[in-house]
Amino acid sequence: MFTKVLVAEDHEIENLGVINTLNELMITEFSFVSYCDEAYSKIGQAFKDEVPFDLLITDLGFISDHRGQHLKTGQDLIREARALQPDLKIIAFSVEKKAAVIDELFKDYQIDGFVSKGRNDGRELISTIKKVFAGEKVIPQHILNSIRNTTQSLTPYDLSLLTLIAKGWKQKEIVTYFNEHGIQPDSRSAVEKRLNDLREIFDAKNNIEMIVLCKDLGVL
């Protein structure tokens, strides 16, 4: 089992639950920090002293206060910690629910596990720590299902629309293209409505964010 753990979390009440989890796993050497910069500093010092942490558990969102920070999010911390200590195991422990954001954590930030905060998160955290220690990547099943359902629900029409948007085409140009190639529906209102529907499906604020999410999910 892991012997030295660092927890980056700025809510004390959450720390109590993590402490109970670590105690149940009989992990006695652990530290808590409330700032990403402080977490990175501790990781760096421990690595320099040749007594490195072997697991980082971090939240993703940190509340800004009077103390200026270079690393402002859990993603910032994960990126820098991974660069400093490539073999460090990392578990994200967060209220984040967006499948695309969580998928990005595994694909781009190379985390080892993700646990959603909420009911029964203590049990889930224990299970995830054990599996990560055993060398597994722990992606929550509901996230896998969400990604699968999102991508499988797209039609050839949707993919054509998304591909043209990704190329930078304007709605007017897409309408003309659909009309010339017999792709239905080809009215401007229909195209606009389907784009609105797709943004809701991907929970994106605009077309640019939607295309980024599509690329993250491997749709484009």
Quick synopsis:
With 220 residues, the protein is an alpha/beta fold.
Account of the 3D structure:
- The protein has 220 residues and is of the alpha/beta class.
- 53% of the residues lie in helices and 11% in strands.
- A 5-stranded parallel beta sheet has the order 2-1-3-4-5, with helices on both faces.
- β3 (55-58), α3 (74-84) and β4 (89-94) form a beta-alpha-beta unit.
- α4 crosses α6.
* Structure annotation, total helices: 10
Give, in order, the helices and strands.
EHEHEHEHEHHHHHH
Instruction: State the CATH topology of the largest domain.
Output: Rossmann fold
Number of strands: 5
Largest sheet, spatial ordering of strands: 2-1-3-4-5
**Structural classification:** alpha/beta
Q: What oligomeric state do these chains adopt? A: single chain
CATH architecture of the largest domain: 3-Layer(aba) Sandwich
Q: Major sheet: size, sense and barrel closure? A: 5 strands, parallel
pLDDT < 50 stretches: none
Topology of helices and strands:
Elements: E1 4-8, H1 12-24, E2 29-33, H2 36-48, E3 55-58, H3 74-84, E4 89-94, H4 99-107, E5 113-116, H5 121-133, H6 141-152, H7 156-166, H8 171-180, H9 188-201, H10 207-216
What brief labels describe this structure?
220 residues, alpha/beta, Rossmann fold, 2 domains, 5-stranded parallel sheet, 10 helices, 5 strands, 11% strand, elongated
